[in-house]
Amino acid sequence: MTLLITDEARVRTLTLDRPDALNAFNEELYDALADALIDAAADPAVAVVLLTGTGRAFSAGTDLLEMHRIATDPTFQRGRHGFPGLIDALEAFDKPLVCAVNGLGLGIGTTVLGFADLAFMSSTARLKCPFTSLGVAPEAASSYLLPRLVGRQDAAWMLLSAEWVSAQEALRMGLVWRVCEPDDLLAEAHRHAAVLASRPISSLVAVKRTMLAPLRDGIAAARELENAAFAELMGGPANLEALTAFAEGREADFTGM
């Protein structure tokens, strides 16, 4: 099992549960989380979803070993939803989504915050958008959502540099709403989620839909551009060097690229 699902006070907690892989997303986990969001959206007993992770990571992003297989093995079987289907489910999810970033967050472990309505972060957690260090393009409409969330220059630094962002930096940027001590994180996030869940679902949905409506065209356009750039770069020289270096346990060498 790669995803734990629990319910309390109309809050459904979805916990990424691949701790040995730092909760990195393989095709199985993409499918499981997409299905869970679709199910939660349709369940009248669920008012709010709280997303977190087990172990020392929120999510290390895409499983790079599996990504290497996808890039080099034409027979690899993709999931039913995969990454695109998860982003579809996040974009369509019309109930409040609360994220509790318990540890390291890379790639989708950071860009998912663009779809969060409230984000809490452990004081010891760190975030990174590693796209340029992998020789690929942004994802999950982050090229559109992050500048709106944190401002153009902070977003540019995150997306261009592939450097770590601390919890305090994330709070200053507005990438997260609250920073908590590690032992307090989940309880604090759940407490706020329960406040939202005490409100009528119809009103919660109406508020979220009206807030998102002006953004939907921008999200769709960004995803189209990102997907085209990602398809062009994935499997290219820089991406293959990054993935090979990861598999071999060495630093990538982008000299001349």
TrEMBL record:
CDD domains: crotonase-like. The keyword Isomerase applies. It is found in: Peroxisome. Coiled coil: none annotated. Keywords: Isomerase, Peroxisome. The keyword Isomerase applies. PANTHER family: ENOYL-COA DELTA ISOMERASE 2, PTHR43684. This is Enoyl-CoA hydratase/isomerase family protein. It comes from Nocardioides plantarum.
